[in-house]
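Pilot study result, target chain (354 residues):
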Amino acid sequence: MSFGHWKIAERVQFLGRSSKRDLRRLLAAAVPVVSITVPGGAGAQPPQPPPQQQPPQQQQPRPQQQPPQEQQPPQQQQPPPQQQPPPQQPPQQQPSRNAQQPQPSAGETGGCGALPGHDELASALRDAIAPGDPSVNGGLGNHAWAVTVDRSGTICAIARSGPDPGAQWPGSRAIAAGKAFTANAYSLPGFAMSTANLYWPAQPGNSLFGMAAANPMNPLALHSGDASAWGTPGDGLVGRRIGGTIVFGGGLALYSAEGALLGGLGISGDESCTDHIVAWKVRHRLNLDNVPKGVAPDGSDNVVHDVTTDPASGQDRSPSGYGHPTCSAAARRIAQQLPQEAPTGPEAPANTGR
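Predicted structure:
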């Protein structure tokens, strides 16, 4: 008996009363079994059944591939807005440093036409200066600069007593211009203030402290023009306004014989007390000293030498409120005699000598 039939008989005995349907199922299962003849009789070992085949594993369904997304066409970058170039301004022409400045007209708030010209100013300055002789005006006996401005602050004339620009302190040219501007700027038709009168009010703690920083000077205008022409009719400052505030002696307001305020005069080149004395003499020679009223004891705009030191507190004081320091005993004495030797008023110029 083949191994296959033996196996079927064995299963039939096991089932016993199995139905025909079960028998058919068994026979169908035995169909693929290979029939093997056992050699060697009864002692032979029955052959081992073949290994049962594992049912095939069900393959996992492949994940459905997503349809490729439709690619958006790349956005075109917008070009940056073109910047409009700023409108071109026509180039401003800078005035030449060596170009002679136009003379101010007489119709500008009185203007320079009512003031002495360069030659007249230079002559009055040289008459008042005694180079090398400190006894005449006190101070150092130096040469000096003289500057006049009209009522608008425009420089009308610049003169010097020395033969060339280097004969005076070159830096005093600007100081003289600042003194003329200050005396004109802080005087009124009915009340005159010299730059010497402004010294004490401009000190710390007093009523005009800080005024020295007002109206700053224009350095570009100050250094314009040919330096060799300084103090001549072709001086580059003539016709310009440069400002400046000076609060020590040397600046006086200019009043006509009729009492009209015409402008200011500035002198610089020596000690401030001496500059005031020279300015007083020059103004008197020009007959422009018809001063209406001032802070000095005699009612003029003369320097007031009353600044002293309080021995108890060590603090300076000025009883008048318009004091100026004393530069030297000689300068103080000369200044005190000015109202007698060169009085203010509409009278004809006196011969004050030197």
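One observation from the pilot: The chain has eight helices and six strands. A full batch analysis is planned for the follow-on phase.
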